[in-house]
Write a structure and sequence with these properties.
- This protein is of the alpha/beta class.
- Helices cover 38% and strands 17% of the residues.
- It is built from 14 helices and 15 strands.
- Strands 4-10-9-8-7-5-6 form a 7-stranded mixed β-sheet, sandwiched between helices. Strands 1-2-3-13 form a 4-stranded mixed β-sheet.
- It is globular.
- The relative contact order is 0.16.
- The model has no long low-confidence stretch (mean pLDDT 97).
- Bound molecules: pyridoxal-5'-phosphate.
């Protein structure tokens, strides 16, 4: 057996089978490229679902992490540490908000947003205890906890994990009338991805997000934008909401905030909202730890210049132009997305998304399929135009046969 087959067999023997990875075993990576245990190189066109916006082994992030590793890595929130205040202040300022509540994974940050919205509903809005409702969209992806899968519409993500947490109303994504009808006096929040990633990179109709913003303001409801995957440069702007001129009440951030080095997530909002939490009411052992803060501070410093956003916008225009040409060629049914982020629906006769992904892997390009015949393209924002073109050439050739 090859080293690859050995490694995959060992993984299958001793890990739960909750994933079905492509048969590639990565050993090292740099920039937009990964190298497997047999020395084959692959262009990473997934970037850890946007966790690797700055590429693998980004020098600035690695140096920031190394320096912090030598100083202090964890204090727990029982004590203060000297990177915490700076991290919270910079992140709040970067988001145009006032307060930060740091966690680790995206799902924890979504849970934090849900808890915050409920507490705000009871303490500030005056919703009767135990009756708060949060409106969410069909085909959402907000993470994997029991509460979050309770309001998923994906049977795979949800089945056999009940009993489910109540308090959520699901409406079709992009349908303002349905959303308006779902909002009642007990509604404390509307929770949306400004672009639905897992669903296939679905961009809502123009005007939807601004209308949600107006409606939530009129009805005294918090607008929570889950920008875990869409935020921090991916779409060509810092936040996907910006494309529609929308500022939500709460950003939920994760993935790229940790630079692909450590898990870092956060809820960022106003004092009026995040100020509802009192000591002991919510927390996390690792949330806001010194290593996480040091890496995230470097991420914010990199994003502050706007160069990554601009790069995503420019390369994204090129990506969408090229994919548009492919759509004209008959093998691609539809292309969606913004910036360096695309959902590509392949004509089903060309194969499932999985089959296309495997063929691309054989040619040295790594992407991830999603439902049916859709593949997602989201390379690190540091990818060169030449590498991007090479990756697109491989896709073109796979679809040509
Ligand atoms: C990935 C993702 C999450 C969950 O993040 P984890 O770190 O995997 O828990 C939540 N929301 C969106 C939009 C995501 O893309």
């Amino acid at each position: 057996m090859s080293r690859t087959q050995d490694a995959i067999a060992a993984a299958e023997a001793h890990s739960a089978h909750n994933y079905h990875p492509l048969p590639v075993v990565v050993a090292t990576a740099e920039g937009a490229w990964m190298t497997d245990v047999e020395g084959r190189r692959y262009l990473d066109m997934l970037a850890g679902y946007s966790a690797l916006n700055f590429g693998h082994g980004n020098r600035r992030l690695i140096e920031a992490a190394k320096a912090q590793l030598e100083r202090v890595t964890l204090t727990s929130r029982a004590f203060h540490h000297d990177r915490f205040a700076e991290f919270c202040a910079r992140l709040a300022e970067f988001c145009g908000m006032e307060m930060v509540l740091p966690m680790n994974t995206g799902a924890e940050a979504v849970e934090t947003a849900v808890k915050t919205a409920r507490k705000w509903g009871y303490r500030v809005k005056g919703v009767p205890d135990g009756t708060a409702k949060i409106v969410v969209a069909a085909n959402n992806f907000h993470g994997r906890t029991t509460t979050i899968v309770s309001f998923s519409t994906d049977p795979e993500a949800r089945a056999d994990y009940g009993p489910y947490t109540p308090g959520f109303e699901i409406v079709p994504y992009g349908d303002l009338t349905a959303l308006a009808d779902a909002v009642t006096d007990n509604t404390v929040a509307v929770l949306l991805e400004p672009i639905q990633g897992e669903a296939g990179v679905l961009v809502p109709p123009p005007g939807y997000l601004p209308a949600v913003r107006r409606l939530t303001r009129e009805r005294d409801v918090l607008f929570i934008a889950d920008e875990i995957q869409s935020g921090l440069g991916r779409t060509g702007k810092t936040f996907a909401c910006e494309h529609e001129g929308v500022v939500p009440d709460m950003y939920v951030l994760g993935k790229a905030l940790g630079g692909g080095v450590v898990p870092v997530s956060a809820v960022v909002s106003s004092e009026a909202v995040l100020g509802v939490h009192r000591p002991g009411e919510h927390g996390s052992t690792f949330g806001g730890n010194p290593l996480a803060c040091a890496v995230a501070l470097e991420v914010l410093a990199m994003l502050r210049t706007g160069e990554f956003q601009q790069r995503a916008a420019e390369l994204g225009d090129h990506l969408h132009h090229e994919l548009g040409l492919m759509a004209g060629g008959g093998a691609v049914e539809a292309v969606r997305g913004r910036g360096l982020w695309a959902g590509v629906d392949i004509v089903p006769s060309k194969g499932t998304g999985r089959e296309i992904s495997e063929k691309l892997m054989d040619r040295g390009v790594l992407v991830k399929d999603t439902h049916g015949s859709t593949i997602r393209i989201a390379p690190p924002l540091v990818i060169s135009k030449e590498d991007l073109d090479w990756g697109l050439d491989q896709l073109r050739e796979v679809l040509a046969v």
